[in-house]
Amino acid sequence: MIPNKEFQKISSTFIHTEFNPILHLCEFDFKPLKYMSKKVTDLTKKVLISVFSYLLVSVVFAQEISSDEAVIAAGEATFKANCTQCHQVHKKVIGPALANVYDRQSVEWLIPWIQNSQKVIASGDEYAVALYEEYNKTQMTSYPGSVDDIMGILAYIKAETEKGPPVEEVAVAAADGAEGDSVSSSYLTAIIIILVVVLLLALVALVIAVNTLTKYLKEKKDLGEEEEELVNQSFDLMATLKSNSFIGAVVFVFTLLVLKTLIDGAFTIGVQTGYQPTQPIAFSHKIHAGQYEIDCQYCHTGVRKSKSANIPSPNICMNCHTQVKSESEEIQKIYAAIDYDPSTQTYGTNTKPIEWVRVHNLPDLAYFNHSQHVAVAEIECQTCHGPIEEMEVVYQYSNLTMGWCINCHRDTDVNTKGNEYYNELVKLHSERSKEPMKVEDIGGLECAKCHY
Amino acid sequence: MRMLKTTLNYIAFLVAGSFLVSCAAGEDDTGLEYSPQMYHATSYEPLTQIVDEDAGNWLDSNDEDGHGEFYNSNPYNPYKMTMREPVPNTVRRGQPLPYRYTVDDLEAAALVESPIPADDADVIAQGKELYESYCQHCHGAKGEGDGKVAEAYAGVANLKGAAYVELSEGYIFHVITYGRNLMGAHGSQVSPEDRWRIARYVKELQKK
């Protein structure tokens, strides 16, 4: 075959001639050859491409989403380790809900997307770009795992999609529970009613028996004097009430009761134990500190660092409540206070303070420092504040009187472990006494320690 | 007649008794306060304040101030609040210089080195304590995103996830400060030194 280049040379040699038989000849001879050679390369290319793409496609299609339990379990682990911070199967979180994702896009689209979404977006894929725009240009973190891992994730998503959202199950379970409760409580009421009826019947029977017996005894003539007195005894209520001994006893008992109430009442003056004010927002420590085990310090940030434990600012609430229970009436009160719009997730400027009601109010004349007690002495919050994690509404647990402070300072050992500050004091104390060093021993009872 | 008198006496006792019982605190009632001036500071208090100008009129010791004994609010502040935010662009004494990076500077922030020396022996124990207070309820004791709150709050990061194990301390510090995706900003709660301690501890946790 004559190479194309040579043909060009030949033709250019004769190009200026108006008519050149050789050129015509050449054209006639070589054109088909040239055409054929092009055709052959195109064909090879096409064949190669189609073979390659067939291979590629068959590789991808070979990986259908598995329904094997082992694969699903592995996929669940991968999903929970890498995806749950932005995705849920049935709920939109940061990224879209993933139920049916394999129907929305093919597996061969999803794999490169999961591996590097930015690359897919950069390639100009319409769906990818639209998705990126819809989610405010939030970049999906590239997943560095293998294709097998991704197939596992998809298997888990498919299994979850087929299971359906879990909400209904929960609702059904709750309804069941409520029914069970009402059944058992109505059962209890029935038992009580039956018991009361039985007791009343017994009482009636007894009264009838007493009456019959009295009647019978009265009809009998051969009773002794004492016995007759007993049978004919009549109870004079007025005479008993007017008797001196009765009035005396009543007066005595009442004087005792009044004195007791008086003393008890006097001891509650200025002591606010049990004070349980209604707060502007029904915040439950039982849910937050109890159920969800959030550390006290997470919200009461000052407790280890300053005199007061601090009332948390709403931005701490918003760490969770941008998402959690955002439709709740109580949470709406936070939104109103900080002028937050949950639909657009933006903050306005029309803010106002939330006026929490102070529960524990130590009089001004006494100094108390939280950090000394919590950070240095390592006293649990519950020691003074009671079972906060069980309180729906917080109440004052301890009485916060001086006697209460002093008693604790007498009984408590100073926490000197790992605290160099106390080294010398411990040395001095151990020279004089074999008892452990109490707060009392280092001036915990000095007036000026708290009153100045 | 005498009977009626006795009954009246009973009632009188009961009423007197109930009055005394009502000295105790409960529900919304603080109970009877002994020398109430001591409970209601006249000085400005950051965490307690009385906005009602008539509060404590009945034992007012100063007729000239124009308000009751208990009123202690600052009329010049918004909502008469006594608690104020720190003045912008000021630094507390003894504190490190403020963190200048803004939310979007994540890439640059990731390159910031921790000011805590690498051979600081105490930092892991301190960081653990802080992690337990500030992070554990969401991210879980082992950092696997399985804390109690994660049950109610979808999208807690598994700190041992492939996308997180390689992150630098500077990156973690930045995310604690400003939050990221669903995580809220914790800069107001955790001091900068403590944030670096937590970051060091998280790196330690990820190795386990």
Structural class of chain B: mainly alpha
Low-pLDDT residue spans of chain B: none
Give the CA-based shape of chain B: elongated
Which class of secondary structure composition applies to the elements of chain A?
Answer: mainly alpha
> What CATH architecture of the domain at 69-165 in chain A do you see?
Orthogonal Bundle
Question: Main sheet of chain A, how many strands, which sense, barrel?
Answer: 2 strands, antiparallel
- What is the approximate shape of chain A? extended
Helix content of chain B: 25-40%
Cα-atom radius of gyration of chain A = 45 Å
Question: What is the radius of gyration of chain B computed over CA atoms, rounded to a whole number of angstroms?
Answer: 28 Å
Give the termini separation of chain B. 88 Å
Order of helices and strands of chain B: HHHHHH
* Full CATH superfamily name of the largest domain in chain B: Cytochrome c-like domain
The CATH class of the largest domain in chain B is identified as Mainly Alpha
- Report the count of strand segments of chain B: 0
Q: Which strand order does the major sheet of chain A show?
A: 1-2
- Tell me which oligomeric state these chains represent: heterodimer
- Can you tell me the CATH superfamily of the domain at 69-165 in chain A? Cytochrome c-like domain
Most extensive protein-chain contact, per-chain counts: A-B, 68 and 63 residues
Average pLDDT metric of chain B: 84
